Amino acid sequence: MTDLWSRLTSHRISQGDQRITDLFEADAGRAAAFCTEADGLVFDWSKTMIDAPARDLLLALAQGADIAERRAAMFRGDRINETEDRAVLHTALRNLSGSVTVDGEDVMPAVRATHERMSAFARDLRSGAFAGQGGKITDVVNIGIGGSDLGPYMAVLALAPFHDGPRTHFVSNVDGADIADTLKGLDPATTLVIVASKTFTTIETMTNARTARDWMAARVADPAAQFVALSSAADRTADFGIDPSRVFGFENWVGGRYSVWGPIGLSLMLAVGPENFERFLDGGAAMDRHFQTAPLDRNLPVLLALVGIWHHQVCGYPTRAVLPYDNRLLRLPAYLQQLEMESNGKRVAMDGSDLAVVSGPVVWGEPGTNGQHAFYQLIHQGTMPVPCEFILAARGHEPDLAHHHILLAANCLAQSEALMRGRSLDEARALMAAKGLEGAEQDRQARHRVFPGNRPSTTLLIPQLTPYTLGQVVALYEHRVFVEGVILGLNSFDQWGVELGKELALKVEPLLKGEPAPGHDPSTEHLAGLFRALRA
Ligand code: F6P
Prior knowledge:
Layout: H1 2-14, H2 20-26, H3 30-33, E1 35-38, E2 41-44, H4 52-64, H5 67-75, H6 90-93, E3 101-102, E4 105-106, H7 108-127, E5 131-132, E6 135-136, E7 139-143, H8 150-158, E8 167-171, H9 176-183, E9 191-196, H10 203-217, E10 227-230, H11 234-240, E11 247-248, H12 266-272, H13 274-293, H14 300-314, E12 319-325, H15 332-344, E13 362-365, H16 376-381, E14 388-395, H17 402-421, H18 425-434, H19 439-448, E15 457-464, H20 467-488, H21 499-512, H22 522-535
Parallel strand pairs: 7-8, 7-9, 9-10, 10-11, 12-13, 12-14, 14-15
Antiparallel strand pairs: 1-2, 2-15, 3-4, 5-6
Helix pairs in contact: 1-4, 4-14, 8-12, 8-15, 12-13, 13-20, 14-20, 15-20, 18-19
The structure holds 6-O-phosphono-beta-D-fructofuranose.
GO molecular function, one term: glucose-6-phosphate isomerase activity
Subcellular location: Cytoplasm
Pfam families: PGI
């Protein structure tokens, strides 16, 4: 493995000032050879500096990391989350006809039973058979944070054309502004509140849940009757007063950021209906089958992971941008930030040693074309290349607005072309000459208009954004993160890095209230003093 990392680095250095366009000139078949199709999804990775030797070395890296064995261990329910001593089985939530055993017990009957209960509840609520104290439920408020918010929020926005259920709202931030703005204008008598928290202890969620309960209690005789809990902690949901018939539980082998496929996806199911939710699960399960069966060199999650490793660990580009050319994928970058950075932002390997290579990159992004009018300047002309991951659907959902979609797609393809080709100084000079500039001024102005090009990107092309394809894409990214984690040698399924700040917040709270709170550093004490003074 170490040898492969150094061979990859040497190979990258040996590419010198070669350009991506040179790779196309040298290989007439490159566009097709570095474009992989699976189950209707197309992943084009030809606009990168990965040439045939780099591809072979990367594949050898995957082979050497024993992806196949780690993958099998995950799917069969081994405790691969070793620091929490847990299996990792979110895949079981989307394979309802499958069979998975954990500690000798078939977990699928319980998974299926919960899924059936969710579906029955969704059908009742959508039909009005389950109603609020003022009539049919018109609005659903999902209160959760991190994985208990980002997945369903992202998916609800993505599948807007399929909405035929109640309006769906999301509250995550402990900032009172979030819940105040959300509840404003809602009728407590026709609102359902979902408290989504695996642990049912997360301070943001529980604070918001209590505020929502008070809001409802002011208008409704029995507020708890309009609350649902999505949680693994049945005792705590009972303490909160939620009837067990409206508690949808899941096991500790479903990680927060992988939980949209089960009860945490209830808001999505209410919005789009159980059938569409099942299409979403089917898409995820189809990607699971592809991941388990396709050879490494045709395996989409493996290829995405290898391209990511090439750009971050080998080329040293510190960030990657996710750029969906689909406005409904507005929250996909935020969702992927948690998925990728909470999973692979780690400095210690599975065995407790220091990680031998750098950990996962900063992931960020925004839908196109909006991003083009904001940060693409830096992507095109900044000093540090940003590998870009474009996502584009061939068809939109607005047949009357097909010309919008063609324009959207043209922008997407134009950006990746521009990033790769750039514009030379000679071309820029010619542009300036055409405007009548000459000599030193022509040169000065031309230099600002040069695009260095040779900036890598990939494009994921999907037929149309539907429940099924969304399921495929989400599962694709989940497995990509898994493969990257296996190759880096870390545990992608814990998140110890979020703990310290949470603990300290509890100790800072008394400081802000002016209560005795020893043990803080001088800067924090000083800031807290200023905060108190400004509030006085
Ligand atoms: O941010 C840490 C984290 O544990 C995430 O992994 C999780 O998705 C989120 O908090 C919410 O946790 P819970 O569902 O237990 O409220």
